[in-house]
Amino acid sequence: MSSSKPKAKPANRPSVRHPSHNHPLRVFKPKEEDETVCSGCELQLTEQAFKCTKSECDYFLHKSCFDLPGESHHKSHPDHPLTLLHSPPDDQSVYTCAACDQYGSGFTYHCSSCNYNLHVGCALLPETIDREDHEHPLTLLYCTSCKGREDTIFICSACEDTVSEDLWVYYCKECDYGTHVLSCVAEEDQESNEEEEEEEEEGDMSSPASRIKSLMKTRDEMAALQLEARIRNDANEAALDLWDQPKRRYYW
C-alpha cells in the first residue's frame, strides 16, 4: 500500500506594513538594469528596498524611505516643523518642491500653514558637495545670494540660466560661483567616489551626488510625461470645441 507524502507548504516570507500602502511589503533586492523607481522619493532603487507582496501591485520603497521620520525640523523652514505626507497635499495629483521648483507625486515634507513642500530627496541633500570643475566645496543655500538685492539676478555658473531668488543653490562665496541645486550637479571628486564604493560594499545608501542625479533624471521623465498629457488633453479639448461649434450650411 503506497502512501503519498503531504505537499510541502511554501515558506512564509516575512512581511512588514507601512502607512503609505494598503498591502504588506517584503524585502526586495533591486537590479540596476530594471531601473525600478521608489514610490516614496521617486528615485531609482539602488539600495535595500521593499516591494508590495501583491504581484499586480508595482509599489516599491527604499528602506531609507521606509524609515523616514514623520516630522522634520528643516533649516530651510525654521518657523514650522514639516510633516511627512505619503501623497501630495489637499488631494492633488502633484505638488511643487520649494527647493528645486520641480513637480513631485510621491512623499513630501509639508507645512500646511505655509503650503511649503519639499521632495524627500531634496530635504536630505548634503550641505556641501564637490564639483570636478571647481576647486572649492559648494555650500547648500536655501535661496540665492541675490535675494533681496534689487537689479541683481543669480546666474547658474554651469548652464548660465537665471535662477529664481527663492530656489536652493550650491554656492561658493569665495569665487561667487553657484549652480542649480539639481540639474547642474556634476560628479563628485575621486575621494567621494571611493567613499561611495565603500558604502555600496556595506549595503548603505548611494552617495549624495548619485541620489541627486537620480532625482534629476526622474524629474525630467516626469516633466516629459506631464507635458505629453497636457498636449493630449489640449488636443481633446480643441476637438470638442470644434464639435460644439455651429455647423455652417452651404447653399448652392
TrEMBL record:
Key word ATP-binding present: no
Keywords: Metal-binding, Repeat, Zinc, Zinc-finger
Keyword Transmembrane helix assigned: no
Domain DC1: 19-65, 75-123, 134-184
Xref: InterPro entries: C1-like_sf, DC1, Znf_ZZ_sf
Protein origin, superkingdom: Eukaryota
Pfam family, any one: C1_2
Biased composition (Acidic residues): 186-204
Single GO molecular function: zinc ion binding
Region (Disordered): 1-26, 186-212
PANTHER family tied to this protein: CYSTEINE_HISTIDINE-RICH C1 DOMAIN FAMILY PROTEIN, PHORBOL-ESTER/DAG-TYPE DOMAIN-CONTAINING PROTEIN
Name of this protein: DC1 domain-containing protein
UniProt source species: Microthlaspi erraticum
